[in-house]
Give the backbone structure.
Amino acid sequence: MKVDASIVSEVRGPWRTETIEIDEPHAHEVKVKMAFAGLCRSDEHLRSGSMFPDGAILEMISGRPTAYPAIGGHEGSGIVESVGEGVTGLEPGDHVATSFIPSCGRCQYCASGRQYLCDLGAHTLVGPMISDHTWRHHLGGVELNRMCQLGTFAQVIVVHEASLIRIEPWYDLRAAALISCGISTGFGSAVNRGGTKPGDTVAVIGCGGVGSGAILGAVHAGARAVIAIDTNPSKVERALKVGATHGCATTLDAAFNILPELTMGKNCDVVIITVDTFQGELLEQARSITAKGGVIVVTSLAHFGQVALDLDVFGLAMYNQEIRGTVFGSESPRVQIPRLLRLHHEGRLVVDELITREYTLDEVQKGYDDLIAGDNVRGVVRF
Ligand SMILES: [Zn+2]
Ligand SMILES: [Zn+2]
C-alpha cells in the first residue's frame, strides 16, 4: 500500500514527506495506523548522522554502507490494522504504543526482567525487519531504514510485534506517544536507575521531554527538592510548572546559588544528565554538584564513538560516587508504558502540559526547527 512518511535522504538533509510503498506484514509483524508521533530529540541524531558508526560497520549490520534514506520517528501510538501469521498477543483494533527497544520476552535479559536490554535491541540501529531480515518499506525501488525499527513519522507502519506495547483503549493516545519514549526514559532515570528515595535532593541537567520525565519521576519518588538546570529559561519555567522546586541555568549557578543553603553544602543525592547531546565536560559538571555517596545518571545520547570525558577521578573515588548509564530508564517498556499511562489517566501524571504544539506530518521539519530554536519542549504529529 502507498502511505505518506517523513524521511531524511542524506546526512543533515531536511525532513521531507514522500509517498512510500509498504508491504503487508509478514509472520510476527503488525500493521498499525498511526494516531500520534512524538518529535523526540533522538531523531535529530538520525538526521545529523551522529548516532551511526562508519560505513563499513553499517554495511556489516545492514548490507549497505549508509543509513539513508530513512523514515524518522520512534515515539508513537496507534491502532492495529492487521497482523501477520503467528502474532498472538495483538489483534486488529488493539491500541498500541511503540517501543524503541523491542522486547521479545525470551532472551536472557527479558527472562530476567530486564527487557530494556533485550537482545533484539541489536537490530534497532539500521537494517531490514527483525522477523525475517527482508525489507518492507520502499521508495522508488530503494529500501528504507526506519528509526529504531519503527519509523513512526508515517501514516501507517509495519513493525515487529516485539516493538509494540498493547495499551488499554481508554488511555489517551496522544499521551501514549510521549510516554512511549521520552517520559518513560526520564521517569525511570530518576526512579529506577537513579534510585531516588523520599527526602532526596535531585538535579536534572537538560529539561526537554526526557528531562521533564526525570523531574516527574523524582517528584513521584518523594524527592524533597528537584533542581531543573537548563540554559533555556523557558524550559526552566516549564520545569517549575511540572514539579521542579528550583531552577537555574548552569551547574555552577546551582553550586553557588542554590545548593549551599538547600543542602547545607551536601549537594545532590541524584544528578541526571538529560541534555540533547552529551558533551564530555558535562560529567565533571554533574559530579561537582553530586553528594558523597551520590549517583550520576547518564541518559543523554552522545555522538557514536565518543570516549573523551572530563572527570575528577580522585573526587569520584573519595566521595564514593557512582556513574550509571541507562537505556529506557532501566525499566521494561511493557511495565513502564502502561503504568505511566494509568497514572496519566487518573490525573496523577503531568503530560499534556509538556506538549507545546501539534504539527501535521508535512511540518516535521518545522517541529524540529522549533525544537532547536528552544521554542518547544515536546511537539507531536497528529495523523
Ligand atoms: Zn525518544
Ligand atoms: Zn528479549
About this structure: Residues 36 and 282 are 33 Å apart (CA to CA).
